[in-house]
Design goal:
The chain has 443 residues and is an alpha/beta fold. Among the domains are: 90 residues, no CATH class; 187 residues, no CATH class. 52% of the residues lie in helices and 14% in strands. The protein has 14 helices and eight strands. It has a six-stranded mixed beta sheet, with helices on both faces. A two-stranded antiparallel ribbon has the order 1-3. A hairpin with a 3-residue loop joins strand 5 and strand 6. Helix 1 packs antiparallel against helix 2. The protein is elongated. It starts with 10 loop residues before the first helix and ends in a 21-residue tail after the last strand.
């Protein structure tokens, strides 16, 4: 059964290509693909039955069935099929990593877009990882026959995970429990039998699949869990209390102007909140006077292709908040989206983007913008449990491997000020409270 299961490989690639080619193209091409597969396997089986005496363990029916003169053509066809199959792996890897980055399950890495067509992307880092992984696999397994164990086990896990996700999807759609149970019995029975058959291959190469999956899932867990730990120490304030203060600061000419238009990114999900560290940077670390203040917030949605925004005027002509609602497949190119919003507001007459300096305004020189990026770091982790301390250290290590939020958002680095903001963890022990000194042993 483990050997027969390899005939089903390729079906999982349909799910990968679904997002690139569309469901109608997949359904139409599947009729042709299915027909060719049936003819191919039945033809090889018929040849084996007719040549039982000459068939040996190393005989490949696919090539043996061909006339000698047709063999070069058959090799070219098989190589072309391998290229097509590898393309599904490459495009699938790009799509999954892109979505993982949007959902904060993967360090931010550079993504290039070769065209304006939807879904087309190129990720150099992933391409190099796939390249070196292929070399490693060739060095370990030496021949394609030795790879069958690793390949078969990986496809079995893939299909079982797809079935489990389908169960959760049916539950969210409130499908009748009897139908869900029937679905589970049919698919888990079939795939479970194949899983048991393929588990025997673990020691013969299947371990490589489990190891690769473990590395990838560990990275995703560290990014997810590390972000959770860090966000525990983000505190928020009510922005309404600080709007008059920010407005007065904007009009205080005794404070040097930091920028005409000052932009912050914020993690506050609610319109009524603002991060405590943003207020600290804006008012306490260095009072930052500006004509207009902008707070940008990015909300990643469960929908794949949503690209919307909402502008909220927190203080008349002075303080604005823009919420970007992005689908998990949409790249967070915040700089481009922000410029589009500004142009739209300018056309509607809601804002003035001309510099307020008299010497520049008479020549219609655009106002200057400045972005402030807060690099939030937990710099005191002494009171954290060991596993959380290790997870957080690995989280920051992985973030350093990536390109950082500034490049990921498409911001011009010359227009960005990076401020290191410590996220301190309060001490758990009351004995650490400092007390006035008392000299009990006077001279």
């Amino acid at each position: 059964m483990g050997a027969v299961f390899l005939s089903t490989t390729g079906a999982e690639a349909l799910y990968t290509d679904l997002g690139h080619c569309g469901i109608k193209n997949i359904r139409t091409s599947w009729v042709f693909v299915k027909t060719m597969l049936v003819v191919n396997y039945l033809g090889q089986g018929a040849w084996v039955l007719q040549n039982l005496e000459s068939v040996q363990g190393s005989t490949n029916p696919f090539y043996s069935i061909m006339p000698h003169w047709f063999l070069p053509v058959g090799i070219i066809m098989a190589t072309t099929a391998a290229v097509v199959a590898s393309q599904a792996l490459i495009t699938g890897s790009y799509t999954l990593i892109s979505e993982a980055i949007s959902l904060n399950f993967w360090p931010k890495i550079r993504i290039k877009y070769p065209s304006l067509a939807k879904g087309q992307m190129y990720i150099p880092a992933i391409n190099w990882i796939l390249y070196f992984s292929c070399i490693l696999v060739i060095l370990i397994f030496q021949s394609s026959e030795n790879m069958e164990a690793a390949y078969g086990l990986s496809i079995t896990f893939t299909m079982m995970m797809t079935t489990i996700l389908m169960i959760f999807y049916l539950k969210t759609r409130k499908v009748n429990l009897f139908l869900i149970g029937l679905f589970v019995m049919v698919y888990i029975t079939i795939e479970g039998a194949f899983l048991i058959a393929n588990l025997e291959k673990f020691a013969h190469g299947g371990w490589f699949t489990v190891l690769a999956a473990l590395i990838i899932s560990s990275i995703m867990f560290i990014m997810y869990r590390g972000r959770q730990i860090r966000n525990r120490f983000l505190s928020f304030l009510t922005i309404k209390e600080y709007l008059p203060i920010i407005n007065e600061l904007s009009q205080d000419t005794t404070v040097p102007k930091y920028a005409s238009q000052l932009v912050y990114t914020t993690h506050a999900d609610r319109l009524t909140d603002i991060e405590e560290k943003t207020i600290y940077s804006l008012l306490k670390r260095q009072p930052k006077r500006a004509d207009v203040y902008w707070f940008l917030h990015v909300d990643i949605l469960d929908e794949p292709n949503t690209l919307e925004y909402k502008v909220t005027e927190l203080h008349e002509k002075r303080i604005y908040r823009i919420d970007f609602y992005l689908g998990f497949k949409v790249q967070p190119r915040i700089a481009d989206y922000f410029n589009q919003v500004l142009l739209s507001m300018k056309e509607d007459g809601k804002i003035d983007l001309i510099s307020n300096y008299p010497s520049l305004r008479q020549f219609n020189i655009p106002a200057d913008f400045r972005f402030v990026h807060l690099d939030r770091r937990v710099n005191k982790i002494f009171d954290l449990p060991f596993h959380e301390r290790v997870t957080l250290n690995m989280y920051y290590l992985l973030k350093r491997v990536g390109i950082g939020d500034i490049k990921a958002y498409g911001l011009d680095i010359t227009m960005v000020t990076v401020e290191m903001i410590p996220l301190t963890i309060p001490a758990k022990s009351k004995s650490l409270v400092i007390k006035p000194y008392c000299d009990k042993h006077p001279e």
